[in-house]
């Protein structure tokens, strides 16, 4: 692990390869799992704010769930997460004509309808941020639904931190990311990654 400011980064994030392969997985990370995506308290207001913009994109059962319990709930572990339908699907999940799932929030962002990209936990995936008092921990969450992303990352030689440059900057800032890149170069010189 390395530490930059109050953030501890697992060497797996610097060493392991990852590059999303939507053609292989069809967005399965949005529709599998036992809970919704982790949400920061400050994001709840943004999720509620964009609802009118994305409402028509959402499935009828997703709209019904949002009307019943809201955009988020507290899961069994006490974490704030996006609401889910069908016991696993994020309520913000939609499908295109090819059967690929996509995020209605991200679609609205890409179309210039909102300035909110999507919850940071989604943007950062497969990184998960742990909160340990004064420290944040940046860890790689391995999930078998992402096997194709690991293979493509190896083929294209893209490390997780490189693939997730934009969301890491969104979360921790450009200066922090520059320090991370410097640390990676030093670790490479020492053959530690």
Architecture overview:
- There is one protein chain.
- The protein has 193 residues and is α+β, with helices and mostly antiparallel strands.
- Helices cover 43% and strands 18% of the residues.
- It contains 10 helices and 10 strands.
- The strands form 4 sheets. The chain has a 4-stranded mixed beta sheet. Strands 3-4 form a two-stranded antiparallel sheet.
- Helix 9 packs across helix 10.
- The longest helix has 16 residues, at 174-189.
- It starts with a strand and ends with a helix.
Helical amount: 40-55%
Number of helices: 10
Order of the strands making up the biggest sheet: 1-2-10-9
Rounded to the nearest angstrom, the distance between the terminal CA atoms is 11 Å
Protein name: DUF3109 family protein
Family: Belongs to the Rv0495c family.
InterPro entries: Rv0495c (IPR021458)
Organism: Bacteroides faecichinchillae
Q: Could you name the key traits of this structure?
A:
single chain; 18% strand; 193 residues; alpha+beta; two-stranded antiparallel ribbon; 10 helices
Task: Summarize the SSE layout with pairings.
Layout (H helix, E strand, L loop, with lengths): L1 E3 L2 E3 L1 H5 L6 H4 L15 H14 L5 H10 L2 E3 L5 E3 L1 E2 L3 E2 L2 E3 L5 E3 H7 L9 H5 L2 E6 L2 E6 L6 H10 L3 H4 L1 H8 L1 H16 L4
Parallel strand pairs: 2-10
Antiparallel strand pairs: 1-2, 3-4, 5-6, 7-8, 9-10
Helix pairs in contact: 9-10
Short summary:
With 193 residues, this protein is α+β, with helices and mostly antiparallel strands.
């Amino acid at each position: 692990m390395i530490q930059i400011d109050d953030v501890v980064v697992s060497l797996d994030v610097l060493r392991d390869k990852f590059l999303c392969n939507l053609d292989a997985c069809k967005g399965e990370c949005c529709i599998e799992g036992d809970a919704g995506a982790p949400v920061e308290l400050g994001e709840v207001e943004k999720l509620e704010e964009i609802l009118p913009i994305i409402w028509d994109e959402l499935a009828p059962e997703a709209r019904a769930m949002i009307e019943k319990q809201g955009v988020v709930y507290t899961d069994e572990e006490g974490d704030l997460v996006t609401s889910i339908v069908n016991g696993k699907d994020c309520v913000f999940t939609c499908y295109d004509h090819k059967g690929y799932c996509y995020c209605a929030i991200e679609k609205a962002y890409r179309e210039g309808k909102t300035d909110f990209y999507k919850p940071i936990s989604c943007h950062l995936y497969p990184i998960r941020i742990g909160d340990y008092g004064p420290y944040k921990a940046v860890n790689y969450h391995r999930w078998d639904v992402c096997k194709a992303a690991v293979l493509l990352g190896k083929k294209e030689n893209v490390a997780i931190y490189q693939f997730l440059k934009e969301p890491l900057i969104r979360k921790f800032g450009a200066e922090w990311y520059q320090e991370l890149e410097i640390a990676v170069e030093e670790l490479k010189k020492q053959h530690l990654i």
